[in-house]
Predict the structure.
Amino acid sequence: MWCQRLRLLTKGKTLFAPSNSLPTYKVFSLGNDRISTTQLAMGREGQERVDNTMKMNPKVDKIQELIRSNPKGGWEKCWEEGLTPWDLGQPTPVILHLLQTDAFPKGRALVPGCGSGHDVFAIASPERYVVGLEISEIAVKKANEEDFFTWHPTELFDLIIDYTFFCAIEPSMRSAWASQVRDILKPDGELITIIFPISDHVGGPPYKVSVADYEEVLHPLGFKAIYMADNELVIGPRKGREKLGRWKRYLGQSLL
């Protein structure tokens, strides 16, 4: 095997650590102070979460109650109590499709808000070293604490994948998100965004997003979409409310 899968089980949370012989992936924890006080959109989604994040139901009500009462510890409590309806329990279908069609660049990849690490493990290979960032305090006990917005990796990334991270942070922090993507992505690297939720709901997270929201913060930095289309592999009734975007940076067009 090209790598060894190590499962670190702590209070119901599964993390992944690199093999000692072939370290092709690693999971860090995100700093808590930079993330929205309600973390409903972090991690990978499950079928059950598709519409529930925009509707009132007992499980979502409980999650919001835990986070509001304790912005840092509440998120951890959700994992402890198994209140993670966003976790699919397997890699995201469109990520697997891109992998199977050899559409991912090789080299170093970053997945901020990686949840249980399903996508991190899926795309890791001898040609691709993958770093996952996650907010859980459980992860802090098993990995080095890193904050996406202030992190300075020793090497830049060839690929960054954003899914349910952009919609989880406060909208006022989206420009900072874009600047950090620019700073840690190689000049010829690629940004992949799975844009969700495209809707007109109020509040969050997940906060409503649109292609224009991404363009607003990425265009000034020289990023242009080289591909944008509905995600045909979307889970359940999200169909029509989720798009796949692929972005490259054209240095001559950067305004900053």
